[in-house]
Design brief:
single chain; 2 domains; alpha/beta; 17% strand; 306 residues; 12 helices; binds 3-phosphoglyceric acid
Length: 306
């Protein structure tokens, strides 16, 4: 019988857990939940009997894969799979998938929520500003970017986007203005919302060259990955652009310094919260379980990323 290990250091909502169980029960798969574990050693110790893994931001390293000799498939219940060593998985004949789009609305709502929080001075009682009429630049127009655009239009924002991998006409049909270069996007907008993945090309790519182009008092919102930011350059921009603001769902390495030096101009969630809604957990968790069943029973490899 196929054994599925749902390894989530940051657990799914209770309702998602019961719905994932129901899907796996119906298929006759065995499963166990391994939640809130303490570090990689515990994770490595838990995978030895697993045929399939469902994970979130949990790190699937060479060591995890080596400790799971029966492993056939890993499904990242979510979008970004930078936490999975794809080369190690491929070398061990392990299929890796993600569940694109399933948690995107939750991340987009958080991005706009953080913008409101900043525009209203962290709800400290002082007069703030409105999002209406402000220019929002969406850096990468994938599933989350598209939801952000849609919600932002509801706020009355002017929405721009830059994404060299998406056809201009596909972005324009959403009523979004396409910028031909990333520099143009950054220099034109009051808010920039980041939705690029973390990979070798994007690592630290949000650097001084780009950030220094942002308007006076502009706000950068990061619900993507901390690795894409050059954190030293970020400090320099905070110093030079005296009303620049940075909001992130992934606390930077220099969080304490930023919070101390630039109080009121930055905000970091205590833990990555973008996809932490019941709806997103249910959508992504069920999709992951169904993808495992379809692969084991029928060899279906839709959403394979390696
Ligand atoms: C994703 O890539 O899907 C999001 O960053 C959500 O990550 P999480 O499942 O760890 O909350």
């Amino acid at each position: 019988m196929t054994k599925v290990l749902i390894a989530t250091e940051k657990p799914f909502a209770a309702q998602a857990v019961s719905e994932i169980k129901a899907v796996l029960d119906t298929a006759g798969f065995e499963y166990s939940f391994f939640e809130k574990y303490n570090g990689q050693d515990e994770f490595i110790g838990a995978v030895k009997d697993a045929d399939a893994l469902i994970i979130r931001s949990d790190k699937v390293t060479t060591e995890v894969i080596a400790a799971a000799p029966q492993l056939k498939i890993v499904v990242r219940a979510g979008a970004g799979y930078d936490n999975v060593d794809l080369n190690a998985a491929t070398a061990a004949n392990v299929i890796v998938m993600n569940t694109p789009g399933q948690n995107s609305n939750a991340v987009a709502e958080l991005a706009l929520g953080m913008m409101v929080y900043q525009a209203r001075n962290h709800f400290n009682g002082a007069s703030g500003t409105e999002l209406k009429g402000k220019k929002l630049g969406i850096h990468a127009y994938g599933n989350v970017g598209r939801y952000v655009a849609n919600i932002a239009k509801g706020f009355g924002m002017e929405v721009y986007a830059y994404d060299p991998f998406v056809r201009k006409e596909d972005i324009e049909k959403d009523g979004v203005i396409v910028k031909d270069s990333v520099e143009e996007l950054y220099s034109n907008c009051d808010y920039i919302s980041l939705h690029i993945p973390a990979n070798e090309q994007t690592k630290e790519s949000i650097n001084y060259g780009l950030l220094s182009k942002m308007k006076k008092g502009a706000t950068l919102v990061n619900t993507a990955r901390k690795e894409v930011i050059n954190e030293n350059d970020l400090v320099r921009v905070f110093e030079e652009n005296e009303s620049f603001k940075y909001l992130s769902d992934i606390a930077p390495g220099n969080k304490d310094l930023l919070e101390e030096k630039f109080t009121g101009r930055c905000f970091f969630t205590p833990k990555k919260m973008g996809a932490q809604t019941a709806e997103a957990n249910i959508n992504a968790g069920i999709a992951a379980a169904k993808q495992i069943i379809a692969f084991i029973n029928d060899g279906n490899t839709t959403f394979k990323v390696n």
